[in-house]
């Protein structure tokens, strides 16, 4: 599809808003204050209302794990957990999510620096080539596990379909998710090793 | 992206005060933010309805009331939807991706704009975006465009799966504005393009969808949604069918057939339903219903395949329906269907 992506901040400044009688939660200023709990830490920032959740995380909090792939909600590289549910952070404004909890790929690492089991599985199964989609893939895979959708290869493929991999590392991504979620889902018994599936 | 001011009212009184000319409501943002990035939507003011108490999914008598802010994920997973409205659950889960469904809301889904590439490209003429500008799709790339409900001014397809199920289920849309509330049948909520493709719904300026009421009926309980797309998942429909049958004593008493991906609005195929009602279910009547569903189709150079696809997707949906009777309805519905 023909697209144009504008960078925030390259256009005239926002005009002062109307409203703001104090009854509604209104910000008529150019910038608005946004406080979020990101990976367990409270972050307060002043942002233009145009700033997406993705740009807030990358440019204001300084977390570059969430990637800007298509910036259109089509690729899933920007996937983060918002109140523990996975979302495309490029398609929603940061100002809409004040006071909420966000988890990025950086927040998966344990306090001792140990990789999350899903991260380790991606390493073990070489589940990437260029690595650009990987943070989004892992965040979706972690969410998929919590949602109970790791019931087997077909179910995992369907529930990972919002994360595209331009390098087409899908077979190894699938192997990693199967390995990391073995025993977590109710239905199909996922294999614990990948010796057979990796031959594809 | 053009700059805008932002408000987040907590009740409808505040909402009406915050809304005004060139304002847009936002819920999840999955469609509006996208359109604002590509310059198609240019509101001066964005009114965030996320704090309004419109997220509920509740049974009231024989109707399921769904608030406008219910997410696609929550609605698809709701036990009453899974059990009594399978076509709705299936339609929801066939749309978008898990991380989009977690943001996307019922109201936003009904208000989403077409994915016609010319509509999204502000360098191209589009009657929907700019009335009178012309339609680049007529002679352009239109293999995904509509064959039903089109006009000489617009052939853009309505992209929703959810809305197709809602029109099949006789859902009623509750809307409210500064001057009061009203109810619009889902089947009449979206407007065919005619000579004003820019007018897409019955909503007046400032009006907001509060929710929908979905009757829980036998034809909805014995139903399914079949969607054909260019890849196995995460794509808009080339053609889809929501069908439901109430079969008693070997005769179809009630039938619902609605189409997605082939029409300018979520498309109720009443001619197909008339063929089905009164007959015994079977391949012959299913085939006649499928033909009736495609009646009136006006294909263009590159989308004639959709006419046959309508027939096949309706046939497949009707033959996919399980033979087993649907589960008993909850609460007051558990008696004999009327």
TrEMBL record, chain B:
Gene3D superfamilies: 3.30.465.10, CO dehydrogenase flavoprotein, C-terminal domain, Uridine Diphospho-n-acetylenolpyruvylglucosamine Reductase, domain 2. The keyword Transport does not apply. Coiled coil: none annotated. Keywords: Oxidoreductase. Residues 1-219 form the FAD-binding PCMH-type domain. The keyword Oxidoreductase applies. It holds the Pfam family CO_deh_flav_C. SUPFAM superfamilies: CO dehydrogenase flavoprotein C-terminal domain-like, FAD-binding/transporter-associated domain-like. This is Xanthine dehydrogenase family protein subunit M. The lineage of its organism: Bacteria, Bacillati, Actinomycetota, Actinomycetes, Kitasatosporales.
């Amino acid at each position: 599809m023909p697209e144009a992506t504008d960078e925030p901040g390259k256009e005239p400044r926002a005009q002062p808003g109307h409203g703001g009688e104090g009854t509604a939660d209104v910000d008529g200023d150019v910038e608005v204050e946004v406080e979020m709990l990101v990976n367990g830490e409270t972050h307060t920032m002043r942002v233009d209302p145009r700033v997406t959740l993705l740009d807030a995380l990358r440019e204001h909090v300084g977390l570059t794990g969430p990637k800007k792939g298509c910036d259109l909600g089509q690729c899933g590289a920007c996937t983060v957990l918002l109140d523990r549910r996975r979302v495309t952070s490029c398609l929603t404004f940061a100002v809409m999510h004040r006071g909420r909890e966000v988890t990025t790929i950086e927040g998966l690492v344990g306090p001792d620096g140990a990789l999350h089991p899903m991260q380790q599985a991606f390493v073990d199964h070489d589940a990437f080539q260029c690595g650009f989609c990987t943070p989004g893939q892992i965040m979706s895979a972690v969410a998929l596990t919590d949602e109970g959708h790791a019931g087997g290869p077909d179910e995992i493929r369907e529930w990972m379909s919002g994360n595209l991999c331009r390098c087409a590392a899908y077979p190894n991504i699938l192997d990693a998710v199967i390995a990391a979620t073995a025993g977590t889902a109710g239905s199909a018994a996922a294999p614990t090793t990948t010796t057979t599936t990796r031959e594809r | 992206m053009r700059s805008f001011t932002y408000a987040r009212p907590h009740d409808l009184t505040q909402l009406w005060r915050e809304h005004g000319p060139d304002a847009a409501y936002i819920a999840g943002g999955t469609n509006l933010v996208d359109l604002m990035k590509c310059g198609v939507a240019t509101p001066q003011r964005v009114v965030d309805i996320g704090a309004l108490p419109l997220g509920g999914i509740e049974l009231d008598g024989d109707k399921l009331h769904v608030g406008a802010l219910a997410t696609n994920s929550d609605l698809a997973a709701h036990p009453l939807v899974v059990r009594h409205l399978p076509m709705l659950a299936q339609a929801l889960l066939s749309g978008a991706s898990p991380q989009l469904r977690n943001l996307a809301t019922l109201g936003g889904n009904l208000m989403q704009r077409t994915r016609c590439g010319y509509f999204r490209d502000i360098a191209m003429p589009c009657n929907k975006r700019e009335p009178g500008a012309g339609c680049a799709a007529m002679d352009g790339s239109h293999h995904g465009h509509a064959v039903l409900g089109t006009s000489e001014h617009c052939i853009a397809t309505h992209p929703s799966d959810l809305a197709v199920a809602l029109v099949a289920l006789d859902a009623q849309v509750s809307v409210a504005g500064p001057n009061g509330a009203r109810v619009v049948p889902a089947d009449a909520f979206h407007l065919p393009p005619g000579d004003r493709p820019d007018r897409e719904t019955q909503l007046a300026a400032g009006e907001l969808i509060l929710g929908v009421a979905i009757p829980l009926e036998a034809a909805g309980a014995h139903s399914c949604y079949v969607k054909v797309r260019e890849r196995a998942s995460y794509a808009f429909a080339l053609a889809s069918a929501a069908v439901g049958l109430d079969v008693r004593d070997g005769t179809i008493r009630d039938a619902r057939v609605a189409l997605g991906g082939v029409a300018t609005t979520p498309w109720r195929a009443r001619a197909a339903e008339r063929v089905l009602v009164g007959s015994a279910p079977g391949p012959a009547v299913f085939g006649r219903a499928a033909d009736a569903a495609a009646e009136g189709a006006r294909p263009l150079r590159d989308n004639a395949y959709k006419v046959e696809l309508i027939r096949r997707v309706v046939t497949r949906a009707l033959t996919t329906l399980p033979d087993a009777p649907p589960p008993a309805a909850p609460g007051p519905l558990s008696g004999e269907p009327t």
